Amino acid sequence: MRIKIFVISIMAILAIVACDSKQRVKAPAKGQPKHAPQQDLGNSHQVEVKEAIHADSYTYLRVVEGQEEYWIATAKQPVEAGQTIRFDKGLEMKDFESKELGRTFESIRFVDKVRGHSSAQMQMGTGKNPVAKAADISIEKVADGYSIKELYTEMASLDGKIVSVKGQVTKFNGGIMGRNWVHLQDGTDSGDYFDVTITTDVTVKKGDVVVFKGKVALSKDFGAGYKYDLIIEEASIVTES
Predict the structure, then answer these.
(1) Of the candidates 5, 42, 116, 184, which lies 20 to 30 Å from 168 by C-alpha distance?
(2) According to the model, what pLDDT value does residue 31 have?
C-alpha cells in the first residue's frame, strides 16, 4: 500500500513539473519563420540609410554601419535615404520572407525604435530649412488664408485651427505612415522658417502650385528625427474662389 501511494505521488509531481515547463515555453511570434535563428543586436548602433522601402506595415532600410552594409526593418515611419539614424535594440532574422515585398532577406534586423537626422545636418522636421534651399518664387496668399510667414509668426495662436495656405510643392513623399507628405513654399519666410510640411491623402508633384486646407498642429514628433514645430495635417486641396 505504501509503495502504491509513493508511486502515485511521484507521478503527480512529474505531471506538475511537466505542466510548468510547458507554460514557460514561449510560442514563436506571429508571422516569424520557425526556422529563422535570432540574435540580440546589442545597443547603440548608428547607421546611414542608403535605401528606404515603405510597405504597408514596415519601413525596410538598407543601411551602412562602418564597413558593414545590412537591412533593418522598423514600424512604418518617414525615414529617407541620406539620413543618419540610431537604434538600440533589435533581433536579427535569417532567411526572412517578406510577403509585403515579395522577397526574402538573407539577413534582416528588426528594431524597435530609430532616431536620427539628415546626413547633411539639416533640421528636416522643424520647418527650419527642411529642404536644401528656399525656392526663388513669389506666390500671393489665398484670400482668407495665411502666407508661410504668417503661419510661423502667428503659430502660437493657430494650434488646432483649420487654415488655408497657397504655395508651390517643393517636395513630395507618398504613402508613408498611411499618408502623403508635402513641402510647400510661397517665397515668404519668418527668420529660418520658409517651408511648411503638410500631410494629406492627395497626390501632387514637385512644381505644382496648390491651395491646401487643413488643421494646424504644433510640436509634433513622429520619431526618427521628424519633429515639427508646425505642421498642417489631414489637408485637402481647395479651389480659389
Answers:
(1) 116
(2) 42
